[in-house]
């Protein structure tokens, strides 16, 4: 027991003699937890503000345009979707637009008979995009009507309110006509009111037969004047003279209430609740309802002199009063059919490209991270440096065998995943091999740079682990980038492992060609150059110091 205790003390003393190694050892867990905490404090596995394009069919009826606009507004105002563009087009347009890497989701809206069809086309190479999109659509459209293909349980369905659209139809009505007599001595006057809500227009039509008492044609014809004073105090007049031959007279006018129909959709749990809301303001009421109108009818006799005095008595008239009004009714929500496209992938389809990246990264690092540090500790590095071999040749000599071994391990993972577990692979094998090769070179160069910086093999290894673990957490292999905070998501988009994963994922799941993965490949080439420069400079510096 004493020997064991003494050996333990020796190991702790050894650690104390290498403070840099101890510091790296402490930084590793602190940095890992810090990265994980900052990245996912805003919501783990909840994809938000996913770049989205909305494609709307052009042949949509006027009635459905209102509903389509409502759905579009909901999508734009949601936290789940970040609408980048709204265009017109068919389903093929929506599908082709998704190939643009700027979008994760393409939402296609169209009318199909008496139903709105919402086609959600998702980029399923992004883990949790489909489930997040379905969850977001359920929250947006679940209150609209029955939602298909979202597997909502009954509790969620009954908790939703429906949207009932309000439509207004113009109808007409009439008051009982006023039939009376007006004479030369006094003006006829009365009042009326309208109990009908939502008045639009009011029509007044005054007609009469002249009591012409002379035989001189035009002379002797009376002129009647209709005057209406609205509840607002505005006066409207219209006059006309009786016809020469028929003695028939007619005049009138139309009043505009300036009431506009209220077409605001009603949110209600059922049709009875919606009907109850429709019977209240702002759907009922309006200008001039149950208010008094004053009507005056006066006559200016056509007879002159003695004829006027003895023969003109006045005229019988008929005043017809009609009106038009808005009659509101509800349109029950049509079913919104929601379809999701791009066959849903299994977890092994998602994770196989990630496992290849992980294996290639860690194997490449494990093989190369201690190489130069061990050479330095054993003293063989000085012998190599004393020869005529150049620094670049030393680095290249170490890179080639490690890269070959790393590529082999990546291919082993691919073969097992594709043939044993049936992981999806629809891309080109040669492009896949190229992507693995570039990733292998990048990780080996990172490891050689760390090996040049580290004084001992353990220190070099810890430097690599401290770099790899945060990159692994932020690469999108296990946690989607859009579930991270904006700050950490931005950092993650620049990390080499993110680009390595994006390239392999695009090849295997989406069948991307070389032109489509060119950006992640070029980004990895840039990192190869950076790590190579760091490794060469550190190697030369340590060589001079030693």
Structure explained in plain terms:
This protein has 546 residues and is an alpha+beta fold. The protein has three domains: 19-41 and 345-545, no CATH class; 50-148 and 335-341, GMP Synthetase, Chain A, domain 3, CATH 3.30.300; 168-331, Jelly Rolls, CATH 2.60.120. The protein is 47% helix and 24% strand. It has 17 helices and 15 strands. The protein has helices at residues 2-17, 19-40, 62-76, 91-98, 129-141, 154-159, 271-278, 305-310, 347-368, 371-378, 380-386, 391-420, 429-453, 457-474, 486-492, 496-510, 518-545; strands at 50-56, 81-88, 105-112, 115-122, 162-174, 178-182, 188-193, 199-209, 220-229, 235-241, 248-256, 266-268, 292-302, 315-331, 336-341. The strands form three sheets. Strands 5, 6, 8, 11, 12 and 14 form a six-stranded antiparallel sheet that branches. Strands 2-1-3-4-15 form a five-stranded mixed sheet, sandwiched between helices. Strands 7-13-9-10 form a four-stranded antiparallel sheet, with no helix packed on it. β1 (50-56), α3 and β2 (81-88) form a beta-alpha-beta unit. α9 packs across α16, α13 (429-453) packs antiparallel against α16 (496-510) and α13 (429-453) packs parallel to α17. The model is unreliable at 39-45 and 145-160 (pLDDT under 50).
What is the gist of this entry?
The protein has 546 residues and is of the alpha+beta class.
């Amino acid at each position: 027991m004493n020997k064991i205790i003494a050996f333990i003390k020796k190991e702790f003393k050894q650690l104390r003699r290498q403070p840099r190694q101890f510091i790296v050892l402490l930084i590793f867990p602190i940095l890992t937890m810090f990265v994980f905490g900052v990245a996912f404090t805003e919501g783990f596995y909840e994809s938000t503000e996913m770049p989205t394009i909305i494609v709307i069919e052009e042949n949509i009826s006027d009635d459905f345009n209102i509903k389509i606009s409502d759905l579009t507004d909901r999508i734009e105002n949601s936290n789940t979707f970040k609408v980048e563009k709204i265009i017109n087009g068919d389903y093929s347009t929506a599908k082709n637009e998704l190939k643009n890497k700027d979008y994760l989701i393409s939402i296609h809206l169209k009318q199909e008979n008496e139903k709105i069809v919402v086609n959600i086309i998702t980029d399923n190479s992004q883990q949790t995009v489909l489930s997040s999109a379905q969850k977001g659509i359920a929250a947006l459209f679940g209150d609209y009507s029955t939602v298909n293909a979202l597997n909502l349980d009954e509790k969620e369905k009954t908790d939703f309110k429906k949207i009932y659209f309000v439509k207004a139809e113009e109808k007409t009505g009439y008051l009982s006509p006023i039939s009376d007599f007006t004479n030369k001595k006094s003006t006829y006057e009365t009042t009326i009111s309208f109990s009908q809500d939502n008045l639009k227009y009011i029509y007044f039509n005054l007609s009469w037969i002249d009591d012409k008492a002379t035989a001189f044609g035009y002379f002797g014809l009376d002129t009647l004047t209709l005057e209406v004073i609205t509840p607002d105090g505005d006066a409207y007049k219209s006059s006309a003279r009786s016809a020469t031959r028929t003695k028939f007279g007619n005049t009138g006018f139309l009043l505009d209430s300036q009431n506009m129909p209220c077409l605001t959709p009603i949110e209600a749990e059922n049709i009875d609740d919606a009907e109850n809301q429709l019977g209240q303001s702002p759907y009922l009421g309006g200008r001039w309802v149950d208010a008094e109108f004053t009507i005056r009818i006066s006559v200016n006799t056509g007879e002159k002199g003695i004829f006027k005095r003895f023969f003109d008595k006045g005229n019988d008239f008929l005043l017809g009063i009609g009106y038009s009004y808005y009659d509101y009714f509800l349109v029950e929500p049509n079913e919104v059919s929601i379809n999701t496209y791009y066959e849903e992938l299994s977890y092994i389809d998602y994770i196989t490209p990630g496992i290849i990246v992980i294996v290639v990264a860690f194997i490449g690092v494990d093989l190369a991270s201690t190489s130069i540090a061990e050479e330095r500790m054993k003293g063989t590095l000085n012998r190599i440096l004393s020869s005529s071999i150049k620094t670049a040749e030393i680095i290249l000599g170490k890179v080639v065998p490690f890269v070959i071994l790393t590529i082999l391990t990546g291919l082993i993972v691919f073969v097992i995943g594709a043939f044993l577990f049936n992981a999806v692979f629809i891309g080109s094998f040669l492009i896949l091999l190229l992507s693995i090769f570039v990733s292998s070179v990048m990780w080996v160069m990172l490891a050689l740079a760390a090996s040049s910086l580290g004084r001992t093999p353990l220190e070099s290894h810890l430097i690599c682990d401290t770099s790899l673990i945060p990159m692994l957490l932020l690469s999108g292999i296990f946690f989607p980038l859009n579930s991270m905070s904006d700050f950490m998501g931005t950092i993650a988009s620049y990390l080499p492992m993110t680009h390595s994963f994006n390239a392999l994922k695009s090849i295997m799941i989406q069948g991307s060609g070389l032109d489509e993965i060119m950006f992640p490949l070029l980004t990895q080439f840039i990192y190869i150059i950076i790590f190579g420069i760091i490794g060469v400079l550190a190697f030369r510096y340590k060589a001079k110091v030693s």
